[in-house]
Amino acid sequence: MTAVAHTDTLVKSTTCYECDANCLFDVTIDASGRAIKVEGLPNCPRGQLQLERQYHPDRLLYPLKRVGAKGSGEFERISWEEALDTIAAHLQQTKAAHGAPAVGFFAGYTKEARPQLQRLAHAFGSPNYLTESGCCFSATMVAEKLTYGYKLKTTSTVESPKTRCVLVWSTNASGSIPPFENHHLASRKKGRKMIVVDPRRTETAELADIHLQIRPGTDGALALGFHHLIFKNGWQDQAFLDEWANGLDAFRDYIQAFPPERVAAICGISEADLCAAVELFATTNPAQIAMSPTSTVQHSNGFQNHRAMILLSAVTGNIDREGGNRFFNDKVLPKPIELFDVCKNELPPRIGDEVFPIWTKYWPAAQSMLMPDCILEGKPQPLKTLLAMGINTAMWANSKRMEQALGALDFFAVSDFFHNPATLQADIVLPAATSLERTALIAYPGCAYQGEVKYRHQALPPRGEAKPDGQIFLELGVKLGMAEQFWHGNLAASWEEMAEGLPDDIRKEAWENPAGVTVYSPVIEELVDMGFLDADRQWRINGFRTATGKIEFDSVELKAHGYDGLPTYREPMESPLSTPELLTDYPLVLTSGGRQKFFTHSQQHNVAAMLAYDPHPRVQLHPDDAAARGISTGDAVEVRSARGMVQFRADVTDIMKPGVAHCFHGWNEANVNELTDDQHLDPISGFPPFKSLLCEVRKVAEG
User: Molybdopterin oxidoreductase domain spans which residues (predicted)?
Assistant: First the structure.
């Protein structure tokens, strides 16, 4: 961090954490020590307005103890000593009465203190460290590693000039990928064709040569329809497949059931558009698929749908090639301090090992979507006590049930910036320091071969008695009698031990240069040493790191666990085709979670300046659906599902596919996930079907 003095002010360079991109910016601090201005984040309202949250009047600044009923919001201020002693005592009591695994350790946002929290969980003896990745990102990574042996890079901010066709699948850069409107997918590019798959006509879809406006949840059928036409027309890279495909014959047999007329009917799109899109993608090489890390897997069959999609890169010979979809390689990484090896080798099974063994094999955490079952029903294992940071019930499908579960815990402690429906169920609430108030060692994954390592120094003293989450967990480790394992409560020492995994020159520059250090994957040198100067197609030297060493069209690993080895398509568990009996009451398809650059999930919704951009929780409806219900833009409406009812404001817009209602997420006062289904999780990943359900929308009567 650099500091520049200007008479009575000081300018410090630091990194933002309104998302996990960790962008560099300058903060101006006045003579009293108050931050008064941020500069260097010109296209990001979250970053520009972060001081609104820093000094928000409702921010939690002192440890609190519940004195009223759970959910009442009645708390009193206590000392840190009392708070930490109380938490440590309850953790020990639960361990003595029920065993250490009955204590859960949950990490939501922010992510920076996860190494310290996971270390605390495993040193305490609990395998049950859980994160928001139980419904975000991890399923795509697991699907890709299972299929290719590598994670794919699918939404890079770095454009390949060689890409001649991009298939954008359920992502919208101007709302979700920094630098938003300046992202390379947010404009037309000379010589680059674009196909967009999305139930909404987003800003990205407006740029497309072809927009396939599918029914939510039918992504797998569409992908298999692409495969059908590619093989039918001989557009596949057969020589590559002959050498590197496992189970191709079974796959080719399976896709015969997905001719264009059937796929068009399932997805609700034009057969002609489908055929044109497949030809454009398959014959305009190199071609790339750009996907969200989350949206395609938040369905009851999302894992297999995603596998069908990513196999398009293999079939067309665009896997790990410049202009196609590159492998996502590890770069220089800090030393692990999480004690996950202890978890794997010495501790009992994690929550989810019992029902989602593929997911837990590849992901270093327990499956958090099972927490309500664990708390309320004791299955697949009991959870009695919870220590959490940045938790919000809005993250769980059927959120009211998760709220009920938190209220049923024997003991629940949480750190956060503000109260939310989860903190109101807590026994102890701790004030968390913001990114301006805390240090962190950041290893940003970046792109296929290139990443960044940064060390953020503290820019401001914490307000009130707020503490960095990582500091809290180290102090709890000390309270629990593990001072040596937790650096005697010294947070800087924990970052320094992590930094021992970095080469000396990188570590030194990361500490001294706010912009950080660019680091590269060693596979580049390996490719060059083997004579491959184009630095792609690393499968030429390493093959595919799967069970067979090949691309898994018919996965032997999935079959060994009783799943379909092929990327089979199944209708969403709740849909016009699978549950027609529900259509009388719930005739619309419900989807949710379209991203906006103004909000990070439930964050920033309490910032008045941010709400000026988008002040109300909205449900988007096609004009035909709205007219049939007497609904106009701005009307208060009820969105109902089989789980409950939530009020939104109507946004009548022809960007929506007829028959589909889209709700924006993250609003505590209008939480769409009170309507979503927690009973039909994806059978492989455990992800909830946030994005393909059924609902009805009705105008709220005046008065």
Answer: 59-476
Containing H/E element for 148?
helix 138-148
Question: Of 478, 391, 486, 471, which is closest to residue 437 (Cα–Cα)?
Answer: 471
Per-residue buried b or exposed e for 95-131, using 16+ beta carbons within 10 Å of the residue's own CB: beeeebbbbbbbbbbbbbbbbbbbbbbbbbbbbbbbb
State the pLDDT at residue 156. Answer: 65
C-alpha 604/C-alpha 108 separation (Å) is 15
Instruction: Give the torsion through C-alpha atoms of 617, 401, 107, 667, to 10 deg.
Output: 10
Q: Are strands 193-197 and 450-456 parallel, antiparallel or unpaired?
A: unpaired
Q: Report the Cα–Cα distance between both ends of the chain, in Å, rounded.
A: 56
Give the tens place of pLDDT for each residue, 55-110: 999 999 999 999 999 999 999 999 999 999 999 999 999 999 999 999 999 999 88
Determine contact, residues 255/98, Cβ cutoff 8 Å: no
Backbone CA torsion sign across 647, 648, 652, 653: negative
Both tokens of residue 124? 């305490």
Residue 575 to residues 171, 672, 673, Cα–Cα distance (Å): 22, 17, 17
Contacts with 470 (C-beta within 8 Å, 6 or more apart), sequence order: 112, 113, 115, 116, 117, 438, 440, 491, 494
pLDDT confidence band for 471 (50 / 70 / 90): very high
For helices 219-232 and 260-267, give the axis angle rounded to 10 degrees. Answer: 160
User: Phi, psi (5° rounding) for residue 443?
Assistant: -115, 95
In this structure, the strands spanning 103-107 and 129-131 are parallel
Give the pLDDT confidence of 500-553 residue by residue, as tens digits.
999 999 999 999 999 999 998 888 888 888 888 787 899 998 899 999 999 999
Mean pLDDT of 216-224: 98
Give Cβ neighbours of residue 413 (< 8 Å, ≥ 6 apart).
83, 86, 87, 90, 386, 387, 388, 426, 427, 428, 429, 430
Nearest to 13 by CA among 573, 514, 534: 514
Chain center to CA of 125: 27
Contacts of 405 (CB under 8 A, 6+ apart): 371, 372, 375, 376
Model pLDDT, residue 2 = 58
Q: What is the pLDDT of residues 221-261, one digit of tens each?
A: 999 999 999 999 999 999 999 999 999 999 999 999 999 99
In the three-class reduction of DSSP (H, G, I as helix; E, B as strand; rest coil), residue 695 is classed as strand
Mean pLDDT, residues 204-223: 97
Residue 243, C-beta contacts closer than 8 angstroms, at least 6 positions apart: none
Q: What share of the chain has pLDDT > 70, as a percent?
A: 98
Are the CB atoms for 395 and 294 separated by under 8 Å?
A: no
535 dihedral zone (left: phi>0; alpha: psi -120 to 50; beta): left
Looking at the DSSP assignment, which residues form a beta bridge with residue 517? 453
Element (H, E) at 590: strand 588-592
Total residue count of the chain as it appears in this document: 703
Please report which confidence band the pLDDT of residue 421 belongs to, taking 50, 70 and 90 as the band edges.
very high
Position 323, amino acid: G
At 618, which helix (H) or strand (E)?
strand 618-621
